[in-house]
Specification:
Radius of gyration of chain A: 21 Å
Shape of chain A: globular
Largest sheet of chain A: 8 strands, mixed
InterPro entries (chains A, B, C, D): Gfo/Idh/MocA-like_OxRdtase_N, GFO_IDH_MocA-like_dom, NAD(P)-bd_dom_sf
Family (chains A, B, C, D): Belongs to the Gfo/Idh/MocA family.
CATH superfamily of the largest domain in chain A: Dihydrodipicolinate Reductase, domain 2
Distance between the termini of chain A: 58 Å
Keywords (chains A, B, C, D): Oxidoreductase
Protein name (chains A, B, C, D): Oxidoreductase
Oligomer: homotetramer
Number of helices of chain A: 11
GO molecular function, one term (chains A, B, C, D): nucleotide binding
Helix content of chain A: 25-40%
Chain lengths: 363, 363, 363, 363
């Protein structure tokens, strides 16, 4: 195709960054991946082998400086630098697709939105989105359009879980130091979905959470748990029930149900890798994807293509960046509740209601 | 309950006979099991232990003679004596529930019908039915009523399979000597279902079958196979596709599909033992019943109760005995086709169309 | 069968009482239903028509007095008289199967246990159980035995829901006046299951609940809701997530999942009426039972038969009566949390931990 | 990517051709679509709008002549010119991906193979494959690798169906004039799958088929049917059961089952559009793809990418062209049997066994 392509760079080449790189390099016809950055020489070596013709940088700032033609940046580095890198790109007027979460802190997340609000005054066609991949998933989209059509009446009860396969390598324990906790890392997707299905303007009334360490007691040193359940109550008569886990035996189980006054939709209530069923002496079974990427690969590719189209054609982004701050805020509050054991309440304009005598000792 | 109960005897206490005995003894409130017969002393000993208060006989004729109050007989002996025992009871004016098949021979099967047609002149409220248990199954009945309601338009293509779990004990090989072959033993249920769903007055136009011995080559000495597929063509634009097997790994797989001009129904397309799903490192699975009884237990109990009610209340039997002869006729023709490799055709009044020069050698 | 049968009376002939009556009358071979009582003349008239040979009473006490041979009573009257009627029968040394809940009040429920503890000293073979029907369900039992076998490791996270079909008649609103609330009426089953799967000796650490009135705001006058979610936290690292609803569109959805450290079991995650699937222009669908009885009929019949056997043979009851008090206690606490919005905590010996400064106004 | 791309042309821009064009234009990074041809000006106009930078031709020969840099041709024109166009490209030494079937005639299909066998002597790295899209489907591939691994023992009974949604527009009737009949058009995929799963060297022993016109009696004028079932028997104890239909109510139902001596695999036994389930007053349902493209889109894209890689890297093609001739041969024999009502037999080297006295009248 001879049309101009969107010149894209990727920051970070870890688990997700390397996938983004391949998606933009090979599976996004309207994009041209021109550069990648990573502080890790091994990741740079991987890029040299796998991303033919793409320039590599050990330093993100240097990449931004050197790549004069750059139009868009995908931030998929460590969460701790998401906001900083996103803001640098935003301030240059570049389009940004920033991996979730913007930050594990609601306040820091807000700085990304603030930067974007400033920058867009100068660059009115600038696009910045947070990578809530499920928003690009065909099944979630189908469910959303059915809800919008009124098929289930008024959506009222939402249940969603993000449950990872047990990883005996200790990965999740290491990761817990920086992840913001299981509610910020896993459930942020479910929170974002709740906001999507209930309406972005939904106001959280309270959150409560409880958790355990069933397989990884080491998580406690990082104020984290390996299984947790939570309730998010919204003003206007809507409730969300959440479950996150690092302990699934069969594989990734990311299931959502939306119950309305006239019907219900489930998404992935019966996880499966593909359309094969196996009949053997143990019964009839299907395999399920071991990781989130097995479930959401197509969504990530759609994300890459739609982000690209959005930037090139100056069309509206599929969802607003502000939601990413709300999601972090809710996730962080759930994580706090998980650790303190306290229910946290908010007023109708989103301000936290202080408990009169919060028992400090437990915090 | 103080109402008079139907006095019932069971002939034969093998695999199915012993179950019938327990059903009539314990799970059929309006019936009273008063006697059982079996030529096998071990089975009689079983009866003594398990059928409290029930008289036992080593000889069927003796039982008929001694039990003056007897009102109904359930014939569940070896297939080879089904017809003879049924006819004896019929001639005494007793109600009869005869296990399928009436006989492996269509001609002998017909003698049962003939005896009944004679006897009913003298005993106008006499009931004789063949034990097509699936006719009493809640799922098949639901499907049938949906078809009758017009939900799928005109039923046109029928697919059904009766597939047993692999039994490495050699049971099926021994059994093949007397079973009439896999199409008479297994597929007779599917043939009966086809007649039910297409209409009892459906006329078979042709049958063809092909089979293999994948696990039990010894079956060939009895002109049988362990896996076979067949096609039954009906006049009026209806076709049935059959599969029978002795080799299933997971358990009993008895599945039926009825495709109509405006919809389709499947029955047991996803076999299951119960509502439990197991998630482990191999995926998500459900267990399935190992044998037909696990799938059809409730149907057998319904059969016992409805047969009893029918006899006591002199209400119409749920299906006519003549169909049992047609089913054997079709099953035997399929079995012949399986062995000869020849398609067998019938004219519109059910007479076999002779091939002009049937290659005798192959028969 | 000539063995002596258990002489049973039923108290209450409402929705569930009439079913118990039929189960004991027709489907429990070792029981003989001899009497029923109901203050409602219409129910007595129903009994006269449907329970041939069974004596009827408008007054429960009179029945107890008159039926000298009575051995067992099934209490299935209005919840408000469960405890009183059960205790009267207990004090007479009769076996009792009391419908759930013993009472909507934990304290009153405890009086039943206390009465039984007293009575059993004089009547050591007396049996008293609470009618937790799911304990008799084949799928739950299969799941339980799999958990016991260690199949899923240590059960850690439990999710269960009891969700009724939307009933536009207003039944649930009327019913709410006496039901104890949705957590006591519906979720009591799920709580009992949690205690079963986690172990009867599990100690509740906290409960929290949130609810809405999505379709029946009138419920608020009775301090009830039509949809609610709750969390029950147990000492020892176990959590239960509950959902109850009166608003399901498709039918009864009673689903349970038990996640362990090495696997997971789901029970009824894909509700279905039977094994039929319907293919039409809207897709492929299965129907689901409209009410709990469609799902649990077999369990109720098993309950009747096993209770009978237990009484006749003086064998151990399948679960202890004390659990019924714990279940009510947890259900009532969840209901309180639902209304007050407060998390309720318990110490390790089950005593409620008082909040230091509970904001009285909200209670 | 700066590596040289495979220069591809598409012949035919109908239903499938236009999709191939888009797949190669946008979703095959290593290919460059440089030209398309179609005798239909409307299709050429479509190409001008949708295939930016791609040259268009009303004449296939002219395209071949003009496009000097062309390396590969995708033949997706009307079936009647498949072979001719494929051979022209083959004779120029071009790589060819020819849509199925090569021809509706086994003899004509063979000419393509013969041309390739000749040409490859001069162009040893030339690739020619037939577009059996299911060979590229992730689920079929997973099933195949499981069979290869021995998971189900020796595959013995194969059941497969290609069932199209009812199309009331009359499309299928028009199409029947040139399609070669339902067994050549639809079942050819199932036949190819049987050959794949049983082994490409499997020898057909006999075919039999029966069919009806349940909704489109007009098909009879073209010797076609709207529903048909067939049996393909292979030497060595293997059988395939086929069903093809133009009458499905719910959508495309392409289901396959492979039963082996130690297990079974099903592929798409429960068709679905995506992972959404809808709960409403009619039950629980999932939607299913209306057409084959909804089911196999990803497989077509994989096909485009793998064909491209194969040509560029001179790696082995995933399956041999000869199988496409066998598939047409079997499909055409089934279609003949469907019309004549005769079973057709073959000897062990694939030659048809003549019936001694074929009743000419019926042919």
């Amino acid at each position: 195709m001879s049309s101009p392509k969107l010149k894209v760079a990727i920051a970070g080449l870890g688990r997700m960054g390397s996938r983004h790189a391949l998606h933009f390099h090979q599976l996004t016809p309207r994009a041209e991946l021109i550069a990648v950055s990573s502080p890790d020489p091994k990741e740079i070596a991987w890029a040299a082998r796998n991303l033919e013709g793409v320039r590599t940088y050990l330093d993100y700032d240097e990449m931004l400086k050197a790549e004069k033609d750059l139009q868009a940046v995908v931030v998929s580095s460590a969460t701790v630098v998401h906001a900083e890198q996103a803001i640098k790109a935003i301030n240059l007027g570049l389009h940004v697709l920033c991996e979730k979460p913007l930050s594990t802190s609601p306040e820091v997340s807000q700085t990304v939105v603030t930067a974007y609000r400033q920058s867009i005054k100068k660059h009115p066609s600038q696009k910045v989105i947070c990578g809530f991949s499920r928003r690009f998933d065909a099944s979630y989209r189908d469910a959303y359009s059915k809800v919008k059509s009124g098929m289930i009446g008024r959506p009222s009860v939402f249940r969603s879980q993000t449950c990872d396969k047990l990883d005996p390598s200790g990965f999740f324990v290491q990761y817990a130091q920086f992840s913001g906790g299981i509610f910020v890392d896993c459930s942020i997707h479910d929170i974002d979905l709740a906001l999507w299905f209930f309406g972005e303007d939904s106001i959280v009334k309270s959150v409560t959470a409880v958790g355990i360490t069933a397989v990884s007691p080491e998580l406690r040193q990082y104020n984290d748990r390996d299984n947790a359940v939570g309730i998010v109550e919204f003003y206007g008569g809507k409730i969300a029930q959440l479950f996150c886990s690092r302990m699934m035996a069969a594989g990734q189980e990311d299931t959502t149900e939306v119950t309305g006054t006239e019907g219900k939709l489930s998404i992935n209530a019966q996880p499966q890798s593909n359309l094969v069923n196996i009949y053997d002496s143990t019964g009839i079974r299907r395999e399920i994807p071991p990781h989130y990427y097995g479930r959401f690969r197509d969504a990530f590719i759609t994300e890459a293509n739609e982000f690209t189209a959005c930037c090139l054609d100056n069309t509206e982004v599929p969802f607003r960046l502000e939601g990413a701050v709300t999601a972090v805020k809710v996730g962080a509050a759930l994580q706090e509740s998980l650790i303190t054991g306290k229910k946290i309440e908010f007023d109708e304009i989103g301000r936290r209601i202080q408990e009169e005598q919060a028992p400090k000792a437990k915090l």
